[in-house]
Please model this.
Amino acid sequence: MSRQGPSEKIRGSAGQRVKRSREVRMAEKFVGTPKKATTHVNQNENLIFEESSPGKKGYRLAQLDVPAVDASALLGDALRRDGLGMMPELSEIEIVRHFTRLSTWNYAIDLGMYPLGSCTMKYNPRINEAVARLEGLAEAHPYQPESLSQGALGIMKLLSDCLLEITGMDAITLQPAAGAQGELTGLLLVRAYQESKGRARKKILIPDSAHGTNPASAAICGYQVANLRSNALGMVDLAELERMVDEDVAAMMLTNPSTIGVFESEIHKIADILHAKGALLYMDGANMNALVGKTRPGDFGVDVMHLNLHKTFSTPHGGGGPGSGPVACKKILEPFLPQPTIRTNPDGSLGLEYNRPQSIGRVRAWYGNFGMFVRALAYILANGPDGLRQTTEDAVLNANYIRAKLEGVFDLPYKSPSLHEVVFSDRLQSQRKDGQPGVKTGDMGKRLIDYGFHAYTVSFPLVVPGAMMIEPTESESRDELDLLIDALRQIAREAEENPELVRTAPHTTRLQRLDETMAARKPVLRWKGPAAG
Amino acid sequence: MRYLPKSSADREAMLAEIGQPSIEALFESIPAEYRLTGDLRIPRQHSESEILDRFRAFGANLASGDAEELAAQPAAGQPVASFLGAGAYRHYRPAIIDSLVQRGEFLTSYTPYQPEIAQGTLQAMFEFQTMICELTGMEIANASMYDGSTGATESVLMACRVTGRQGAVVARTVHPEYREVLSTLTRHQEISITEVDYIAPGADQRDQTGRIDLAALDAAVTNETACVLLQSPNFFGVIEDVAAVAEIAHRKGALLIVSIAEAVSLGIVRAPVEADIISMEAQSFGVAVGYGGPYCGVIASKEQFLRQMPGRLVGETRDADGRRGYVLTLSTREQHIRREKATSNICTNQALVAMMVTIFLTVYGKQGLRELAEQNLAKAAYLEAALRSAGGKRLFTAPHFHEFALTTAESAEELNARLLEQRIVGGLDLARWYPELGANVTLWCATELTTRAQMDAAAALLYVPAGAGARESDVTFQQTLTGAR
Model:
């Protein structure tokens, strides 16, 4: 039933179902002219289970060089498994086609720009993939003797040294599996530090513009969350901060530049206010792509921060992971870092140090997402100091170029200087002067898909109603930026002239807008056989 | 810089167009005193070939990653055999896995928040969830967790939410590093953790099964216990009596969580269907050992616990034209909406690694998973027989999958040092986490990739004839390997 005929049925303007040619349909779908996108045929494909048929094989095991065993005799019938249910049976070519066809239904950086704010969707270099798969690294066992792990430890050591230099911090752990786990690890360090000073304290201050993982991480660390309002410039309100910081505040979690892409120009005062009361400054490094090579958090008063290797350091997002969230800190927090840490032995060899009595313990098995360390280090080597600085400069230039070209077309709620991202709002489009229903940020984001782009970040940060958050990264040429700017201008025009077209977007995708309410109301989370399929 | 798609002229033109005098002007919001004026002290810009040379040197075990040093001592290299498992297992990875997951459409896509242009990832995740349900016998599964250690912790937190209780009883035979993670991540949530021992050597008049001590478990589980966390096969490779443990847990109203560290076992070992929640490390299904990560955790459970399930879920739905499609669903459970009331701070999952798992499971499929597990069982049986005939003693009596604890005449340290001279990595020294077992106990693993020649070689080195001077085992080892290749 997921296969469609050559001429699909679409709903006409009066609601009746009519057949139309592809050309007519494309012409109806735009007020303007999309320059980047065109119609693109991709193939239908059922679920893998629906393609399966008994007796097919996609594998052949090596010839067994030891005697076969009787599983029933070894395990006993009570422990032995009978069958493998509906697991699929296909040949290799069918499997390759299945996943290749699925892949063509995805948008990806390799196809074009992802203007997602605070996500840093930059180019993922292919040499990173090649070196991560070198046999000596991909096959290294985490429990192999240290004498066999010198190369793997050498990578972790060099990456650590580079990240410390980039952040201006003193010590680091690579163990956290992702950014959110990095946040939690950082707060555990804060808590251990405060406990070592006498008491854990009670609260973590978090600006209202912060990502939702910040308060969630604080809660899991046993802290109450105190929300800090931003001022009219979208920055931390120093008077409000001074009022809120007391002996119960363990730390403040600050994203810098903030989620509206603005550098906290009074960052040193923020640090001073916190430090005067014994509280620490935690920096969410989600937006580090605006700073690398230009300034260092360790120099402007940050005590502990996490990095996202899958943002700033080019490891692939992979459709939602794996990530990696190293945590860097100042000397005062070093005793509490997760174990093991990397040690240089007297003979110059590297080792893993487990003897850390004040450590918070472990946040993940072994040493973290090692494969991501390899890729991040390859990226740093490919750039060098000059390349990293140029990268940051290009990312900031791109964001400012978009801002300058679209200001006025869309409302710009905060006029503060932008670094690597810019946040517009849908106010001009959602609140029409003629009183007609307008279009919202989510609709325009979906409409951007028709123009050949991924949507920007929709409705975040929460401090901006109807936020449209755009982060181009350094990976976009001027031509690609111009295409995006052109598309957004056309969408603004469509919002004025044919809002229904925008509200019902996307129109050129394989599937129309999907019913998320239905998915949540009666969840179907697995295939249940032909009857239900 | 080759990744940057701009010429100097482009930059100048763009600055001019937006009325900025210089790039530096764009950074003026950063106070001048904090702006860097010089270069970062990191290695210089490398060409692609230089990067490759450097990582080849790292891959050849040089801490410096220095290609010239590698050229000077090309002998440095990898072991000829390894018997390590303990939560990180070496299995064959079919070639199509890397060729498919390196398609840019999978590799370089974002989390599928815009489902109309992410159906490829979403459908594959739905297939992943279905396969995990089929393998574990559970009704629902999420779209992956960071790994087995964090998955086990999240399962305990989930059980606490489901039951409204705050205590976990944990088998000491759960992977030691999983237990360390559990301890770190639950420390500030007022969850009490009680560990229950296994039936060990020296326990009088009882069979030394290596399984959880059911009497001690019965005593430890109370009406305050949210869950029992068990691993099967456990850290010693021993398959637990899940039904008996479930009976004890359920009698007191606690949930049973079963952690599975070796997913390949599910091809031949009965799924722990008596569990309420299963937390699995799926690394064995097509994910490189890779010095410990990235791996692929996943949580499966009974459907009634859906609202407390952490992590992302993909659900089936229809589009505006009534066609079948997939979306991320039930995200109101997550931190996106609930902020400080969130039940979990998890944001990313392991989508691309879950894709590897899905492809692996499709390649092996219904017949291959059984055959693969049988080969693992056969190899481990051979290894055990070989090591026993060379003087080693199997420590525990309950059935195992492809790992087992072995007592040797020598200490683990001495034995492994001797094996390492022949570039063989022997069994894992268990004294690090189980000092009560003494210095002579190691954990051995064989998979379908372990060859008979490797096992014979290890057994030959294990055997120390009484009063032997020069050992003939060295000769045997060389001959065996030459003979095998």
About this structure: DSSP finds 17 helices and 14 strands in chain A. The radius of gyration of chain A is 27 Å. Residues 204 and 297 of chain A are 19 Å apart (CA to CA).
